[in-house]
Amino acid sequence: MTAAAARTPRSLPGRRIVLADAEILTRHAAAWLLNRALGTPGRIAICLSGGNTPRPVYALLAQSPYRDCFPWDRVHWFWGDERCVPPDHPRSNFAMVRAALLDHVPVPPTHIHPIAAADGPARGAAAYETELKRFYGADVLAADRPLFAATLLGLGEDGHTASLFPGAAALRERMHWAAGVPEAKPEARVTLTYPALDSSAAVAFLASGAAKRPVLERLTRGDDLPAAHIRPAGRITWLLDRDAAP
Ligand code: 6PG
């Protein structure tokens, strides 16, 4: 088999669900998070994506019926990445989730674990790794005990996910659970690394709109993009609307 043939799978890894439009996609993503939370006993961690696509998903979770049946008292909330801006900045992923969801539902404040990215990429990453390890209760991720019950990831048009951008040094980080991305624009970022993101019992990629179709086609062809290297303990589900789906 040629190298090219070896790397060109004809489908996305995991399960692919194509929804008719962005609104139905939003409802399906909210149901996915709710089902993951209800289906996982005890204290659980959910890792959220930033960006624009998931915002309506978070807003929907704050409304009935989701709000009424979500296990708010058992769930801890983490972020897959953050921009190095103040937590009330318009570009803050924490500020986005807080405005769309956390300010409207009964989440105990101790269950909200924002990335202190305003302290800078290196300090923010080190502090978040400490927070993650404290929550997890160990310094080494066990394959049979995922850190996250559910991880929601977005997909950039360049194939990035979280703040794992093409060519970033953070792509090569296999020991630390979080890394700084000082070169990110328009501001530096903090991102979870592959080891932390892969320590997920379930991962859902959320992609909507025709602008995401080319990158999804590249992923389907097996192109070497950051999002292609997410290999969670559990299953990957691609939640796409019809405009985005290859
Ligand atoms: C961020 C996200 C990033 C995002 C993609 C897609 O902080 O922006 O973590 O990875 O998910 O860039 O963004 P959209 O949903 O806005 O297209």
Structure commentary:
There is one protein chain. This protein is an alpha/beta fold and 246 residues long. Helices cover 28% and strands 17% of the residues. The protein has a single domain, classed as Rossmann fold (3-Layer(aba) Sandwich). Strands 1-9-8-5-2-3 form a 6-stranded parallel sheet, with helices on one face. The chain is globular. The two termini are 25 Å apart. The N terminus is likely disordered. The structure holds 6-phosphogluconic acid. 6-phosphogluconic acid (6PG) binds next to loops.
Brief sketch in words of this structure:
The protein is of the alpha/beta class and 246 residues long.
Proportion in helices: 25-40%
Q: Uncertain segments of ≥5 residues (pLDDT<50)?
A: 1-8
Order of helices and strands: HEHEHHEEHHEEEHEHE
What name does the CATH topology carry? Rossmann fold
| Biggest sheet record | 6 strands, parallel
Question: Would you identify the CATH architecture?
Answer: 3-Layer(aba) Sandwich
CATH first level: Alpha Beta
Structural class: alpha/beta
Describe the strand arrangement of the main beta sheet, using strand numbers.
1-9-8-5-2-3
Shape: globular
| Number of separate structural domains | 1
Q: In whole angstroms, how far apart are the ends?
A: 25 Å
Q: How many helical elements? A: 8
| Small molecules (ligands, ions, cofactors) in the structure | 6-phosphogluconic acid
Mean pLDDT: 96
Number of strands: 9
Q: What would you report as the Rg, rounded to the nearest angstrom? A: 17 Å
- Beta-sheet strand percentage? 15-25%
